[in-house]
Amino acid sequence: MSSAASPPPAATGHQVRLSEVLAGLSYALDLTEGQREGHAARSCLIGMRLAKVVGLSRTDRSALFYALLMKDLGCSSNAARFAALFAADERVLKHAIKTINWSRTIEAFGFVTRNVAPGAFWLTRVWQTMAVLARGPGAARDVVRTRCERGADIARMLGFADDTVKAIRALDEHWDGGGHPYSMKGEAIPLLARILGLAQTVEVFHSSFGIQTGYEIAVARRGTWFDPELVDALVSIRHDREFWTGLASRDPLPRIQKVEPEDQVILAGPDQLDLVAEAFAKVIDAKSPWTFKHSNGVADVAVAMGARLGMRESELVELRRAALLHDLGKLGVSSLILDKPGPLTAEELVPMRRHPAHTRDILGRVGCFASLVDVAASHHERLDGSGYHRRLNRDRLPMAARVLCVADICDALRASRPYRGGLPPERVIEIVGREAGSALDADCVEAMRHVLLEGQAAAADAATPAVKTVPGLAEDYRQAA
After folding, report:
1. How many other C-beta atoms lie within 10 A of the C-beta of residue 473?
2. Residues near 280 by Cβ (< 8 Å), separated by ≥ 6?
3. Domain with CATH 1.10.3210.10 in the chain
4. How far apart are CA 74 and CA 72, in angstroms?
5. CATH number for the segment(s) 293-463
6. Distance from first CA to last CA of the chain, Å, rounded?
7. In the predicted model, is pLDDT for residue 385 greater than 50?
């Protein structure tokens, strides 16, 4: 293998282990993939155990370690297309497809027929099935390519080495050449990617059906999906009861630090933490073509508002991070709900209004982001107690949370949504102003007005950029609308 995980750009001030930050945030990726929480962390423990058996160097183990934690960085980028194509909750689809051998035509056909348009009239399901099948293997390859390339791009943005980036890009390749997106075969697939693919599959079956099933699947796919030598390495630890029992019964996060090569630890300072927030903002916003730049848009407006209101520089740094990460919980909401071109039903509002709680849970796992939790998770609260998810009132909403509430509404109104086009600044000011002093802080609304009229925040993109950057999404999205 080539280089180790490259240390990110130098940062000043207090530093924390980058692995602690990413391991906590990986729970957001688990939400998107429809996996049991801790999936990426447990996959990391399995992969690092395999690395020890096969004798990877510390350098390669470090590159593998971060690839395992961040293997699903691109998972949100194909969520809208999955949901539109199948007319189904993409999280259910993503979970289900990991439990079948989709490289077999019969199993792939069965997956389609079982999962398209659940609950719909039978004729609707037939037409939806035909629409999926008409796209053929090429469409499936494109969906996987979008995910893998996006994940690799974000890993590169975070400063990881080529070995980590290449492993994430080749996550879904198979030993026999039947995988996606590039049909790599045998040793042409990077070794670290081969470990990723085996570790994540074993984790899915171990979590869902028990370790015996996990081993049976690995052995059954030996030489087809998986490198035979890696499967043999897995079999060699079959009777390590302490490892497998611990994996099933304990929170995996405390164990992550123990498997990171000590002489390869990457420390993150303020600059790197900002970069992590920017990277996960990209993950969040890729979930829907209608929120492609929302997190950055909210952050820009919020910081400009905060500066106008006299917030200190350190407070603005915290505010920007909270704004970038405020919608982490939306990764756990189906794209069918997020992208619905009309009012949500009472049933659909339940998971939508739960997303700030998910944001709170995820950020609560990241010690250095503890100060962001209350602000980020309060972006739908209102001064009069009419918001959600905790129905806080003015006495319990600090200024940063009040700023974020207004900035979030502002960016949502000025960007396009499935049910309307983006609104001009004057219209945004008019709409938000109606609740000034009651539901929204009047000073924050006034600050927003100045920010918009003076052009201190970049204008929202009125188009739907994700449709332009994901081939085929426009067609699939129109089909579902």
Report:
1. 23
2. 25, 28, 324, 325, 328
3. 1-268, 293-463
4. 5
5. 1.10.3210.10
6. 47
7. yes
The owner of tokens 């990726």 is: 29
- Own/partner long-range contacts of 47-53 (Cβ < 8 Å, ≥24 apart): 47/195, 47/196, 47/198, 47/199, 48/259, 49/237, 49/243, 49/259, 50/195, 50/198, 50/199, 50/230, 50/233, 50/234, 50/237, 51/195, 53/233, 53/236, 53/237
| Average pLDDT of the chain to the nearest whole number | 90
- What pTM was estimated for this model as a whole? 0.90
CB count in 10 Å sphere of residue 383: 23
pLDDT class of 457 with cuts at 50, 70, 90: low
* pLDDT tens by residue, 436-452: 999 999 999 999 999 99
* CATH superfamily, with its number, for domain 1-268: Hypothetical protein af1432 (1.10.3210.10)
The structure tokens listed for 478 are 């129109």
- Token pair 């916003």 is found at 285
Q: With residue 415 as reference, give the H or E element that holds it.
A: none
Task: Name the more confident of 108 and 292.
Answer: 108
- What digits encode the pLDDT tens for the residues 364-384? 999 999 999 999 999 999 999
What would you report as the CA-atom Rg of the chain, rounded to the nearest whole angstrom? 23
pLDDT at 302: 98
Could you please report the per-residue DSSP string of 355-402? HHHHHHHHHTT-GGGGGGHHHHTTTT--TBS--SSS--BGGG--HHHH
Annotated active-site positions, please? 330
